[in-house]
Amino acid sequence: MNGLPDLSRRERQIMSVIHRLGRATAAEVLGELQDPPSYSAVRAMLRILEEKGQLRHEQDGPRYVYFTTVPVDRAGRSALRDVVATFFAGSAEEAVATLIDMNERKLTGEELDRLAQLIDRAREEGR
Question: 31: number of CA atoms within 13 Å, CB side?
């Protein structure tokens, strides 16, 4: 599904924090951001992300606790699709080659086998 809205850089950072933590208050999000904006700016962006359908909140005493509405795998696929389109002219081959080349450690035999299986499956399915 490509229905994820465009998010600003800061909104993506906030979503990344909440995906990583699972659930978070505005103060927790603020504490995780590099070069953070003001607390009120974080609260405003959380409200905007709710309006965009990316987050929901539950009240926990006086605090709102935010959680994502978009599963992390779906959000990751959408973000990766954008990266491949933007930086690799839509070429999955170029993107995968770059990921393998930039990996700081060598891939294990098990990881290479898994990649080979995915390639074989793609061939069988005609992708």
Answer: 6
The tokens for 40 are: 């009120």
| pLDDT tens digit sequence for 63-122 | 999 999 988 888 788 778 888 999 999 998 999 889 888 877 888 899 989 999 999 999
Using CA atoms, how far apart are residues 14 and 29, in angstroms rounded to an integer? Answer: 7
Where do we find the tokens 């690799």?
A: 88
Q: How many domains are contained in the chain?
A: 2
The whole-model pTM stands at: 0.67
Residue 13: domain span: 9-68
Whole-angstrom distance, CA of residue 34 vs CA of residue 37 = 9
User: Does residue 3 lie within any of the structural domains?
Assistant: no
